[in-house]
Amino acid sequence: MKRAISFILISVLLFISLFSLASCAKNKSDESDKLKYYCTFDNIFTEMIEKYNKYCLKNYDESYQIEIIKFENESDMTTKISTEIMTGGGPDIVSLDQKLPFEKLIDNNSFADIDEMMKQYDCDLDFRNYNPTVMNCGVYNGKRCIIPIFYSPNIFITTQEILGDYNFSRGRLDFEKLWSGVEKNNSEYSLFGDKKLNSRLMYYFINQYVDFQNKEFDFKSQEFSNELDFIYKLLKNDNTDENVYYSVVGNDVCMFSTPQSMFGGSIQSMSSCCYYINSSGKTPVIVPNYNKTYEAYVQCGFAVNDKSNKKDKILAFAEYVLSEDVQKYWCGISENKEFGGTNVLALPVNNVAFEDSITYAEQNNNDEESLDSADTKMLKDYLEIINNIDDCMIYNYADYEETYYNSSVIGEIVNKYLAGDISKELFISQITSATEFYLTE
């Protein structure tokens, strides 16, 4: 445990010190006039940048373009950031999928206040035209540190038949009720068809008891202890075979799937998912993830290096990715249908683009006459959940175990507990110490 705490200390202090040093250094001109973005592999954000760079040639000039600088591994990228940030350099844009201690960087004022940037450069963006709950998840202590671009409700997909097999009624994921149904069923089961998705649920459960913004957590409560018992039993007794492909319909059935593991979370792709499940003779059902509220998560978003000397050009990129046409394109409703990746990004934050995505799905469904009453009910449930979202987290659930806190602060402890190497009491004690250190040091 001492070794784990030392690693956390070194890692956190490294990032804090590097970004702090940047505040004392003067901005230096880069060899390239372009904005810089660092990554280790191509992702949806780099695809957006590549399209934006083409847009710049028609609407701005090359100085507005974003240079994508790729590294062979995350360690090399971190070293490069460390070297440059000390002299006031580094990437101008940081995406949320990068494994950085965002909570610490926000506390340390390493990210620019977007609202202040907009005032300084007379930006026309009006955040009242975007989903308020999602956009406000990027606001910390009155400063808009993060710009969400796309989001998804935090839900799972299953069937009424599966729920019936385990005596589990519609509603939020409840570990105690689900375990009770598993015990009565007395048979082998697979939760998600993937052990990684099982552990992801464990990390999510733990994070529900941590308030990063207010630096509070509650691992020693009776509620946490009781819930921990049930989720541990569910995960330990899972019989998933990694060599088998599972689905909520078919021969090898898992209890739940994420929208992204099926057709995606966009309105149109959820329609396809509904039709697919129903055509298999099953009744599709949505189950919200373990949470006391309806929650969403940011699928794609970014922050701005406070020491960037190109903030006006970063705002041009923000206006582009938040524009109605671009938002429509990435959720698969572009008029020319050139983009078929409707399973990549779910819901646009732009209100007009979101409403148009609903209209687009309804028109397509009416043309195809593919939806029956069961499909329609699931879609209505989906829209009802979306309309009642009252919380949003900045991290994509699809990569939740890869966040800095989950991977570098509590990851080793969670792995030991799930492997049966440490007791429940020791597990709670160790994540308590590690979390307290991360939040307060």
Structure in words:
There is one protein chain. The protein is α+β, with helices and mostly antiparallel strands. The protein is 47% helix and 12% strand. The chain has 18 helices and 13 strands. The strands form 5 sheets. Strands 3, 6, 11, 12 and 13 form a 5-stranded mixed sheet that branches. The chain has a two-stranded parallel sheet with strand order 1-2. Strand 4 (139-140) and strand 5 (143-144) form a beta hairpin. Helix 8 (175-185) runs parallel beside helix 10 (222-236). The two termini are 17 Å apart. The model is unreliable at 18-30 and 367-371 (pLDDT under 50).
What would a concise description of this structure say?
This protein is an alpha+beta fold and about 450 residues long.
According to DSSP, the number of beta strands is 13
pLDDT average, as an integer?
Answer: 88
Largest sheet: 5 strands, mixed
End-to-end C-alpha gap:
17 Å
- Regions with little confidence, pLDDT below 50 for 5+ residues: 18-30, 367-371
Tag the structure with descriptive keywords.
two-stranded parallel sheet, 441 residues, alpha+beta, 13 strands, 12% strand
Task: Detail the topology: elements first, then pairings.
Elements lengths: L1 H23 L10 E5 L4 H16 L6 E5 L3 H12 L7 E3 L6 H6 L6 H7 L11 H5 L2 E2 L2 E2 L1 E8 L1 E5 H6 L9 H11 L9 H13 L2 E2 L4 E2 L4 H15 L30 H13 L4 E5 L6 E10 L6 H11 L2 H7 L16 E2 L2 H18 L4 H15 L3 E3 L10 H6 L1 H8 L5 H17 L1
